[in-house]
Amino acid sequence: MKTLITGAAGFIGFHLVNRLLARGDEVVGLDVLNDYYDVNLKYDRLAYAGINKGEISYGKLVQSTLHPNYRFVQMRLEDAEQLLQLSEKEGFDAACNLAAQAGVRYSIINPKAYIDSNIVGFANILEACRHSGVRHLAYASSSSVYGLNEQMPFSTGDNVDHPVSLYAASKKSNELMAHTYSHLFGLPTTGLRFFTVYGPWGRPDMALFLFTKAILAGEPIQVFNHGDMVRDFTYIDDIVEGVVRVIDHPPAGNSGWDGLRPDPASSPAPYKVYNIGNQNPVRLLDFIAAIEKALGKTAQMDFQPIQPGDVPATSADVSDLVKNLGYKPETPVSIGIERFIAWYLGYYAEGRGQNRLILDTI
After folding, report:
1. Picking from 57-66, 178-187, 344-353, which range would have the lowest pLDDT averaged per residue?
2. Please, what is the Cα angle at 143 between 148 and 306, to 5 degrees?
3. Which residue in the list 36, 167, 271, 348 is annotated as catalytic?
4. Is 167 annotated as catalytic?
């Protein structure tokens, strides 16, 4: 299968690309390589799959030196014409859109970035898939869409009309836009509501990365909502396994769908939405304790009120994922954190600064 992966230099995209390459798929990766966080980490992810930084120039397909079936292109989703040309030329069987402006709190500071990438960019992905005959578009949504909902665990059958950040609103918009294209044009689409993804090669703006860096440096960590937070932390390998299964199983439409009692997660059109979470929520203070244990160091905690756009708890109902795809994420947080810490300590050289790479470990 020939698959387009957008956000290929990002955390989830990096792992998905390497998983698909390992099973022999042909992959084209796409990423804008912006500086929302340290761009060197993105280049190092690309290097892991044989994409040479020196070969990258905007709009140019770069051949991997390690995988004959992998090429990468730097491109913005907002460039509708170039994206359509790429899709029509390559003739992708499937696409997985993981490119987006990420982060809940950053959406309060820079809302335009979310409109450009997450709304305009996603519309361009839909158009490219429609006109080039892509047989299935899977795309990243988020647990953030549940917003003010307090019904636990979060179900794809729940109402998601009350987001508390523009990031969450942009992800709900993606689901609505995808359904429109499934309904009007028969484009099979599947949305993936990810729940707090963590693991090796993770994002530096996420809690696990920030906490690990601060604890090692002997600096205090900010603990929001005074520690009264619960998250459905989901290990990256579990996420990728779920994504691969989704890509391989495009939705056919729900023949039993009832417009008088509409199911928000399906449709008569080839449209589906899944939660991908561990279904085993963890208290934030227990999460921090697991990091302390893995590092052999004690955290200094600076307790803070909850931040704007944040929610106190998340928990995923993954029953549809189990029923339809025979899969449930299940890596324990203790194991996932140990794997992250091992990667982190191997990736960064002690005493050489947090942005210096141990090149010989890649």
Report:
1. 344-353
2. 50
3. 167
4. yes
